[in-house]
Amino acid sequence: MDPLAVVDVGSTTTKVVRLVPDADGALHVAARAEAPTTVQEPARDVMVGVGEALAAAGAAGDSLLATSSAGGGLQMVVTGVVGGLTGDSAQRAALGAGAIVMDVISNDDGRDALERIALLRELRPDIILVSGGTEDGSPTHPLTLCEMVAAAQVQSRLGPPVPVIYAGNSRAQDLVRRVLEPVCPVICVSNLRPAMEREDLAPVRDGIHQVFLEHVMAHAPGYEGLLARTGGRIEPTPAAVGRVMRVLAEHHRVNILGCDVGGATTDVFSVVDGQYTRTVSANLGMSYSLPNVLAQAGLPAIARWLPAPVPEDALRNTLLNKMVHPTTLPDEPGDLAIEHAVAREVLRAAMAHHRSLAVGLRGVRTELGFENLFAQRTGLPLIRTGNIEVVIVSGGVLAHAPHPGQALLMLLDGLGIGGYFRCYLDASYLLPQLGALGAAHPDAMEPVLFRDCLKPLATCIAPFGRHRLPGSLATVRLRRDGGRTEAEVRPGRIGRLELPPGERGEIEVIPRAGVDVGRGPGQPVRDVVNGALLGVVLDGRGREPAAEPSPERCAEWLKALLPEGALAVSA
């Protein structure tokens, strides 16, 4: 392959990575660079910032791929005849395509027609998705929603009328076009909920991508030049990250949870038993959304994660200063500890939001016969304690933690998952670019991902479940070239077994009766384990009362994972 550049155009920063082939033809990262995004005044041409970043990376003449979240990313309003059925499906389709869902409108949402029309005019989304009606139902049900959209005559943020994607009862498509085409562009795709028991989201996501390129990006300042340079290959940044998660889950046959903590929003991705879900918490982040985090979590919830007591007034003042100057970074150990405490609450809230949407299809009646007695029933959560096998996290607060132990504790405390799983950190912010690479060159993505992007943090053992006997939760035996190590997982405690990156070992986890590490109560885990920055981490906190956070316990947990010299940056 020839050298290749991949650009991610963010709201404030445009990042470029240059990939070149080695002697064997495999791509590797040769250079990275960034420049301010130039969509806004005075430049009003995204190619100015792209050109600066390409020149800084020495990639001005390379072939180009691109992702974009500039201008707040792709923003959509979705509609469905019934909020808990087609409304849910429409939301999953939009989120999976990389959009921020601004609102869900349905015939049963409790608002009258005038309220919905006023809301659409106020929100000014980039795309409106209309859905509703199964294929064997009445074709007239979604028309009420289409008439509302037509009456609103919504203008997009970029000026032209907002395009509409129709993904409802296919027999209504001609009527939908007759209602909507006089006021806005209309694209009809397959019904996203053709039957109560079936979803078909892929055509909707493809349609969103098509409209994003032809109707949204085409009107953004300078994007016509970027479209020409990339051959029309631009996709929303979250959609590219989601592709990485889906490819890894499929290739390695594992359940994956991913999380990207930003300044204004936090994205959570999961692929569980082949079902992909993405959510975006548009009001949860480390800088611009800090007021929402404080209002939602409360000061005591943040204070409990500090490794040393901080007076309430001092904590409040620190957070208020951050709200006034959201882009400032902590330069004192105490401020860093507060930043990490906030990150835990951001992760906890974003994960709760994700769990609420990562569920089976609602509204399906299932008869329990012998053949499906033990199968997952519809409407139940997809993410259950113990069924996540790989965790991938990114975001500045995690990537810039002074020690990997701090990043690991943030994700363990915030995500609250248990069982036996591996944790990776995207410390280079390369997931969007590698997702774009995977779309153009599928075989090239994964080698670059594990060589230049993902840092292995740890293999984690976090038992859960009910146990009545005192003592350890599980026994862990690790065999490696240097010998054999055995340790106990203690209730309320964190421990660690050394296994540096580049080494391999054989691990055996034997839980106590009633204790689960992901294979069922009392069932052991045997695996070949790869080395990581923190080796194997034993997290015995589970749901034990002794694991409730407090300054004393947080300091103890940090001490278990950080070397003595690193403790000063967390105190």
Describe this structure in words.
- By secondary structure, this protein is an alpha/beta fold.
- It has three domains: 4-71, Nucleotidyltransferase, domain 5; 73-219, Rossmann fold, CATH 3.40.50.2300; 257-569, no CATH class.
- Helices cover 34% and strands 24% of the residues.
- The strands form five sheets. An eight-stranded mixed β-sheet has the order 13-12-11-14-15-16-24-20, with helices on both faces. A five-stranded mixed β-sheet has the order 3-2-1-4-10, sandwiched between helices.
- The two termini are 49 Å apart.
Which bin fits the share of residues in helices? 25-40%
The general outline is globular
Low-confidence stretches: 365-377
Radius of gyration: 25 Å
Give the biggest sheet: 8 strands, mixed
What is the number of independent domains?
A: 3
What share of residues are in beta strands? 15-25%
Strand order of the largest sheet: 13-12-11-14-15-16-24-20
Helix and strand content put the structural class at alpha/beta
What's this entry about, in short?
The protein is α/β, with parallel strands linked by helices and 571 residues long. It has 17 helices and 24 strands.
